Amino acid sequence: VGSVRCVQETGINAEYMGIYLRQKEMTKGTTSQGERRKKNATFCRRCGKISYHKQRKRCSSCGYPEATLRRYNWAKKAVRRRTTGTGRMRYLKDIPRKLKNGFKEFSQAKRVKQRGKGKSKPEVKESKQINFF
Fold it and tell me: What is the Rg, in whole angstroms, of the alpha carbon atoms belonging to the chain?
């Protein structure tokens, strides 16, 4: 109340003075952290991070809903984190083995004779292979 009376006596614009007084009280540290209660970002469906902007409708991390993944060469560490080989590789991990065997499908492996001491097991006749191609 005293500060308002002083403002009226001096003839300075009261709105300007009010803004000035409020700015003086606020700091950039602990006190201003209590004001942070609005949430602009939520979970992204594709990458799972809390980077999907609700108003812009775009993820700041992966670029969802764009088809291509967001990626920049100036962020080499970020590219390394999500490159091929960092996940499960459900399909790609089988490719070297399939390549070695010539990408055969619908065939059964040949039985290998056992060598060494002991009785050898009788060989089983191979069934005819069905070729679909």
Answer: 35
Round to whole Å and give the CA distance between 91 and 84.
12
Task: Give the closest residue to 127 by CA, choosing from 111, 104, 114, 105.
Answer: 111
Answering whether pTM is above 0.90, one says no
What single-letter amino acid sits at 107? S
- Model pLDDT for residues 35-75, shown as the tens digit of each residue: 889 999 999 999 999 999 999 999 999 999 999 999 999 99
Residue 58, phi then psi, degrees to nearest 5? -150, 140
SS3 state of residue 53: strand
Phi and psi of 67, rounded to 5°?
A: -70, -40
